[in-house]
TrEMBL record:
InterPro entries for this protein: CBFA_NFYB_domain (IPR003958), Histone-fold (IPR009072), Transcr_DNA_Rep_Reg (IPR050568)
Record-given protein name: Chromatin accessibility complex protein 1
Stretches with biased composition (Acidic residues): 115-130
Family matches, as SUPFAM superfamilies: Histone-fold (SSF47113)
Cellular component GO terms held in the UniProt record: CHRAC
Disordered: annotated span: 109-130
Gene Ontology biological process: chromatin remodeling; DNA-templated DNA replication
Physiological role: Forms a complex with DNA polymerase epsilon subunit POLE3 and binds naked DNA, which is then incorporated into chromatin, aided by the nucleosome remodeling activity of ISWI/SNF2H and ACF1. Does not enhance nucleosome sliding activity of the ACF-5 ISWI chromatin remodeling complex.
Example GO molecular function: DNA binding
Quaternary context: Heterodimer with POLE3; binds to DNA. Component of the CHRAC ISWI chromatin remodeling complex at least composed of SMARCA5/SNF2H, BAZ1A/ACF1, CHRAC1 and POLE3; the complex preferentially binds DNA through the CHRAC1-POLE3 heterodimer and possesses ATP-dependent nucleosome-remodeling activity. Within the complex, the heterodimer with POLE3 interacts with SMARCA5/SNF2H; the interaction is direct and enhances nucleosome sliding activity by the SMARCA5/SNF2H and BAZ1A/ACF1 interaction. Within the complex, the heterodimer with POLE3 interacts with BAZ1A/ACF1; the interactions are direct.
Residues covered by the Transcription factor CBF/NF-Y/archaeal histone domain: 17-78
One Pfam family matching this protein: CBFD_NFYB_HMF
Length: 130
């Protein structure tokens, strides 16, 4: 390992706040990965951390979070849906809808073969009221 790996051994592994052991497990879950260089592990962890930070900051700035001084799930799912950069996360951060509304959508789908999204703006009313 290089200088970076050496810096990771002591109390200085706070250069990255994600647990490296978990990142290693996730990386090893890929069949193409046989061994993981310590620098690659560190850089993957750091890149992941910066990405999550960017996603959270973007979602906070562009969501309703500013009004409430909080970051909500709906801010994150809205970002995944609306922002091209984050659209690959749309399946991981789906927009929350009421079960009753989902069942209505399924019924409508059976009737005319496509999912209706006519009144999707009124999601999570309970969260918007203070």
């Amino acid at each position: 390992g290089g200088k970076m790996a050496a810096r990771l051994s002591g109390g200085e592994n706070r250069l990255v706040s994600l647990p490296l052991s978990r990142i290693r497990v996730i990386m090893k879950s890929s069949p193409e990965v046989s061994s993981i260089n310590q620098d690659a592990l560190f850089l993957t962890a750091k890149a992941t951390e910066l990405f999550v930070q960017y996603l959270a900051t973007y979602s906070y700035k562009h969501g309703r979070g500013k009004e409430k001084n909080a970051l909500t799930y709906s801010d994150l799912s809205h970002t995944a849906e609306e922002c091209e950069t984050f659209q690959f996360l749309a399946d991981i951060l789906p927009k929350k809808i009421l079960a009753s509304k989902y069942l209505k959508m399924l019924e409508k789908e059976k009737r005319d073969g496509e999912v209706g999204e006519d009144d999707e703006e009124e999601e999570e009313e309970d969260e918007d009221e203070t």
